[in-house]
Amino acid sequence: MSETPVSVDPADWVCPLPLRETRRVLLGHGGGGVLSEELIENLFLPAFGGAAGPSRDSAVLHTGTGRIALTTDSYVVQPLFFPGGNIGDLAVNGTINDLACSGAQPIGLTAGFIIEEGLELDVLGAVAATMGKAAAAAGVPIVTGDTKVVGKGGADQLFVNTAGVGVVPDGVDIGPERARPGDVVIVSGDIGEHGVAIMSVREGIDFGTEVRTDSAPLHRLVAAMLAAAGPAAVHTLRDPTRGGLVASVVEIARAASVGVQLDEAAIPVPETVASACSFLGLDPLQVANEGKLVAFVAPEHAEAVLAAMRAHPDGTAAAVIGRVVEDHPGMAVARTPFGTTRVVERELGEQLPRIC
Amino acid sequence: MSETPVSVDPADWVCPLPLRETRRVLLGHGGGGVLSEELIENLFLPAFGGAAGPSRDSAVLHTGTGRIALTTDSYVVQPLFFPGGNIGDLAVNGTINDLACSGAQPIGLTAGFIIEEGLELDVLGAVAATMGKAAAAAGVPIVTGDTKVVGKGGADQLFVNTAGVGVVPDGVDIGPERARPGDVVIVSGDIGEHGVAIMSVREGIDFGTEVRTDSAPLHRLVAAMLAAAGPAAVHTLRDPTRGGLVASVVEIARAASVGVQLDEAAIPVPETVASACSFLGLDPLQVANEGKLVAFVAPEHAEAVLAAMRAHPDGTAAAVIGRVVEDHPGMAVARTPFGTTRVVERELGEQLPRIC
């Protein structure tokens, strides 16, 4: 046993975060925006001894005989059940998608539950059954788990953590820092549905047509994309969850030190999502998705990759939405439908807390 | 996108749990005892499509070129800081130990944080810094993470999930179902310290001498054990956390359908732990440990394994505490210091909630 304890006392810890008015955790620190990035770069990465390199959706580890991808996500969505899904399939598909966006084929998931005492067993059972069905539908087994229960009031119903492992095929090297000028930016389908589905049920708002979560596993779509044009054709993949399409595109622009030009008119936003966002004062480009990805593809392969996506059930509405440029590195701009240009920037915190 | 949603509604879920007075989650469902087992076997395993096989500390996955172990644990310990450690090193060492008890050498950890809005950044920073130091001390990097923040009152300060991946060396096949009659049962050192450390600070009780958590990573000890007598010599390993030594031994007896005979007088219980347990009305054999393991070793190799443990800094107080027998399969009995014999059985729920 170690005689030199590693435990650090709060009184001895020196806060490296940029000066804020409060020395407390804000809701926005979990929002996937600027505050989240500050927390990761200034608190977690120094603590864990990592450099502030490009943040990939998964880490890639060498096992000695191959490469595996490893990822984790906790889910705190409220309400637990919403149109088209619940916290269970969200947790399964979300972690599969983080692996897929590293180009990995998922081979196993973990399931960790933190449960508030008194939760109805029917609720827990329905979530677990949904997770099992989602895992079976994706062909990725849940292989191990953990359950903790905290007293009444110690948690809000149910939190689910899923971690996942995938195998990275030879030749695949996908990451945000690999985007290159000339790359074609493709989104796999309609955006904004998940966030609007949550908001509609949370706020009790009826938008006429029900908007359902788009939660879906994307590893098969990614496999089809890589098969269509070879593993080197796809430079970057990201699933635009918290912070939406904007957060993904800006993070990639910054990681690769390139500019991104989006064509707003080309971005597929369903009419129901657009009107709901207009009503709620939200930008659909900043609303979370749970079954979409954005791909940065070498221009000579873009046509083949787009065709493969459209031929796949998870990418029928795929569309080219922009291009990588040498101008304004680290920044994304959008050409509006009116022909003007605007800078797109992430939120400081989050539009919608507890969206996933 | 799938046209047949996988989401299961609570109203449609049929509860397969044994009849209890309440259809709600109880604190004891997270306690690592009989209720926990019921929840896993009757709710999670059917939901996830798994058979109720032996519950290993990690799942073993085949990558195509080798075997990896995968595990997850959430930590909800209260208070966050306690003598000798905090939730951070507990989360790092605990997941390393789950991998080690599958015979795997850990190669990477994930860190998932669920944070209550308003938590002092100094507290989060001290926990993260402790995790980094613990990971560095163990030589196992934290490679990826996730942060969620929930509103004030939505969680109790801070929950930490760690998942981990390890490589399983060729020839290693360690699991609870592999215990065999004749096996020698060895514990790696003093038991009961972690649970008593938590209780002493939680209850504000002064036992004279401070009892500190035993939190420590055990993968190097396991490597030394496997090197001492070959990978086939060690049949079963388990770290006796929630539910203590009793829960581990009973679970192994049941998984392998063997009997276990413990010699209570041989079990190393520090005087401070014994007196604290006596005061609190606890059985030290049921108190959680976070830096100990119990090993079931083929008799012809027991001496070599014990010597290797005692020669290792994490196993200096290792002791033979019992033996596997053909009698009373699925049951553990203890010979008391008075020469009598008693059946040792797990708690229904838990002695100490939120101990890890």
From TrEMBL, chains A, B:
Spell out the protein name for this chain: Hydrogenase expression/formation protein HypE
Q: Which PANTHER family match?
A: CARBAMOYL DEHYDRATASE HYPE, HYDROGENASE ISOENZYMES FORMATION PROTEIN HYPE
Read off the Pfam families from this record: AIRS, AIRS_C
The protein's matches in Gene3D superfamilies, at most eight in alphabetical order, are given as: PurM-like C-terminal domain (3.90.650.10), PurM-like, N-terminal domain (3.30.1330.10)
Entry's InterPro entries? HypE, PurM-like_C_dom, PurM-like_C_sf, PurM-like_N, PurM-like_N_sf
- Tell me which residues make up the PurM-like C-terminal domain: 180-328
Tell me where the transmembrane regions lie: none
